[in-house]
Write a structure and sequence with these properties.
homodimer; 529 residues; alpha/beta; 43% helix; 12% strand; globular
């Protein structure tokens, strides 16, 4: 089947969407019936509720037409089957393949990539099992109890967010965490110095993560690690026994003999999509064991499968993408807030910020022509209820409307709760969440204009019984697939990041002393460079 | 002198500002000369550089006229002198008084408030000195080595951001930190459960922080603390010896005998402005000692004094405020990114998010009439270089222009650095920062449109030799005063937060079972409430 690519503003369905009457105020739309009706399974027991989004039945129908006209599901299938979807870099896009194959076998240079990714996962599991069993030990014979991941961007934000999200789950299950994990990312020397001051080198395993093997921050921080090991007096035996690598087979790191072992990914898994590849799974498997990591991948794979549904009302990621485009390109909203009512997801918004803004913050279409419409929104967020005592003031009563993505769970992770003044904390947490959805949607008239709430602030809710590894995998895949569908709608390449290159080039010129730009030198001088 | 209050869109200087020709592209504006010229001291050795902001000399002159016409400095002076600037709640606004008096004495109910705030600081210092000396000990006779702050919003974000910012400073100075600090904020039970599982109750001092003494999250988490103490078998002696309070003298907490001691603030210091009051200083003094806390306050006071300058080109906070209004209300930018190139400031953007969005996310003016112009922008950020590998793609090549606030320092805090490939990490960090400013401003043409950068992305830079306690205080006060000036310009009340009330009311109704709203009940049911 042939797929055609066209800019959003050339689609008939988009013209229709823009011509429709705007939705009524949400206080009139958000009824009990609509709340019960507007729900879609999103995988692993997760449900996507969109009753408090601003749309009419006509808009929903036009969005379905848009999904069909833009060929979103055929494009997703083509991506799964190995089509070159990263057009700028001429690469396939295969992060879904690392967690369960849905399309055809993908063969590259005679290699079955499904088998390759699976093999890496099995190598990781086997390695971690030996570490946990004490069969692999540090250079002085002590068992490893700590793992430190050194990486930046996608090698840091996703793995770190998932690690934080699972720590209390394991505490609550009574299944003891195997190793604690720490992360070093920033080239600011204080980052590495502080983390390395807080670990025992004899019992620490380091993971250096860089797909290219050339990431400036990561190689610099690796040098901090080797110095720390040497300072601990175990230099003669290291780094051979204390450092492993996650990289691509073609990188300089892959050829190094400095590592105890290496796990591989490749150019078909972008950094921000790599949390379910070796990049995330090495540290997560070492921290929690192979079972937990496997459940995470299975959850993501289940959502990948649900994302194949052509009908938006049965496909949560697709529907979320379409409603987001409606808000961005018809209602004109500049940003989206991600608000998980779960302390475990404290760094999940930071990961989504990269996932969404680095994927869809683009000004040219997949063929390189400038687009004449807004693409990816600004994404930010903090956990509730903390955010309620911070920036919610602006969300409720500011002069811009910012759509909201809530996330919530029936149960806590640690299952350690306390009744205070008639309710447990988990109930208070979720009462706050329900109350906020209604407050944002309906607002409130008040004779005191300072206490008057305009309402009509749209939100959606992703909820499940508990934040399990599977639900976390589904949550991650939901947003990955949403971002993918939105990229297809905007006709952009969501899988490159050319916008990060210029800064790298200027930095390199500055450090080599080869920049002729006097303004750059003036700033460098002010900063002591 | 009489002060008049008027909406921004009624000011002659604003009409003039909007009528001016737009600035040329920043690639033509950002010259070595402009970089050297466009700098203002911001206190404690901090400098505000605005060379890469979009403005013409005519716009700058019109902004000065705006500052004069709106009476920004007289309003600031009136605030310092105790005028009722929080008009909705009919309160004075006195956070600057807690760190050094600039205006007249402020007498309230016969009490000199300068003396009152000073007395609280002295009580905190004396108490902390006794804890550090082992004169005040836990109920089993052990010295305290850990302090846990229980608070939310302003009782959490500011103190936590400052604590993180100073930890490595103390490590680097060789002046040992006195106690480690931890924080519990969220009503999610996993937050309290996790923190309390990681401390030794016998050596831990808890601080309950709530101005009203009625904050739901904080009282709930206090119950977790008392249960934890009881479970440790020291119930008979507690909480009398393990819990202190920071609250107002009129709150229910102030009357409780449960606390070892209490430190007070009052209604004239708003939560988000309370980091330099007892709210922040109790935990910071316990963690680092009175000398460090004193330097922080002195830095803030120095910037408060600089903020009195009537000429914007000599007043960094005023100029920052004016340029921000120009970006928001003339250039039409919806958001601002705060990008500190300092791992120590990793949670500083989260604090600024509350400070700015809760203060100026308002839709009515100080008299309660709706305004017809945009007020406070969305504020977000993460430290560099991490952000470069995340959302900078959108900042460089997205379809919206988002102004940037960079922060940087010549030296690291820990002074533990390493030469790798010809430069130390601190130099790499700052080379990246300088390169980003130029990349955003100038952009780059490229035959490959995917590698083409439009540039003309405005930024400013706050920089100093090192992130000392004084520089941190100045940084904090700079943004507080910027937000204050912007509130004056928009003619709004930056000191209340009525937008948080509706959600509280609905939550309370839900927990009491007294809500008649079926939609609210439907959401509550989905979330297991």
């Amino acid at each position: 089947m042939s797929i055609s690519y066209a800019n959003l503003d050339t689609l008939k369905s988009f013209a229709k969407l823009r011509s429709l009457a705007k939705p009524a105020h949400l206080k009139d739309l958000v009824t009990e019936e609509r709340i019960r009706a507007c729900r879609v399974p999103a995988g692993s027991g997760l449900t996507y509720s969109y009753a408090a989004k601003s749309f009419t039945p006509e808009a929903l129908a036009a969005l379905q037409e848009l999904a069909d006209e833009a060929g979103l599901i055929p494009k997703y299938k083509a991506l799964l089957d190995g089509e070159i979807m990263n057009t700028g870099e001429k690469r396939m896009v295969l992060h879904q393949l690392a967690r369960g194959q849905l399309g055809r076998d993908v063969i590259h240079d005679g290699k079955n990539l499904r088998a390759f990714y699976l093999e890496q996962m099995e190598k990781i599991s086997a390695f971690a099992a030996k570490v946990h069993a004490g069969e692999i030990r540090g250079s002085t014979g002590k068992a490893f109890d700590t793992v430190v991941q050194i990486g930046i961007g996608g090698s840091d934000l996703g793995p770190r967010a998932l690690y934080i999200a699972l720590t209390n789950y394991c505490a609550g299950e009574g299944e003891a965490q195997k190793m604690r994990a720490k992360f070093i990312s920033n080239v600011d020397p204080d980052d590495a110095s502080e983390v390395l001051a807080g670990i025992d080198p004899e019992t620490t395993l380091f993971i250096i993560v860089s797909k290219s093997g050339t990431t400036q921050e990561t190689l610099t921080n690796e040098a901090f690690v080797t110095r720390r090991l040497a300072a601990a007096g175990i230099a003669g035996l290291v780094p051979g026994k204390h450092i492993i690598a996650v990289t691509s087979q073609t990188s300089p790191m892959a050829k190094s003999s400095a590592y105890l072992t290496s796990f591989f990914m490749d150019d078909f898994i972008g950094g921000r999509y790599s949390a379910t590849s070796a990049v995330g799974c090495a540290v997560l498997t070492l921290a929690f064991g192979g079972k937990i990591a496997g459940e995470l991948l299975a959850g993501a794979a289940e959502t990948d499968r649900l994302s194949l549904q052509p009908r938006a009302e049965e496909n949560a990621a697709l529907l979320d993408a379409l409603l987001g485009v409606y808000e961005r390109n018809v209602l004109g909203c500049p940003a989206t807030a991600v608000l998980p009512y779960s302390q475990a997801l404290s760094r999940f918004p930071a990961h989504l910020q990269q996932l969404d803004m680095e994927s869809n913050g683009k000004h040219v279409n997949r063929d390189g022509a400038p687009v004449a419409y807004a693409t990816g929104p600004l994404v930010f967020g903090e956990p509730g209820t903390n955010g309620q005592h911070s920036f919610y003031q602006l969300l409720h009563q500011g002069t811009d409307i910012i759509p909201l993505q809530f996330v919530g769970f029936h149960e806590s992770q640690r299952k350690d709760d306390l009744d205070f003044e008639g309710s447990v904390s988990q109930k208070k947490l979720n009462a706050n969440l329900a109350a906020q959805i209604i407050a944002f949607a309906k607002g409130k008239d008040d004779p005191n204009p300072n206490r008057s709430f305009g309402g009509n602030r749209p939100s959606s809710l992703l909820y499940a019984q508990r934040l399990t590894p599977a639900a976390l995998g589904s949550l991650l895949a939901h947003f990955e697939n949403k971002v993918m569908f939105q990229g297809f709608i905007w006709n952009i390449n969501s899988f490159d990041q050319e916008g990060v290159q210029l800064g790298k080039i200027l930095t390199s010129q500055l450090l080599k002393g080869s920049s002729g730009d006097k303004a750059l030198s003036a700033y460098a001088g002010m900063l002591g460079v």
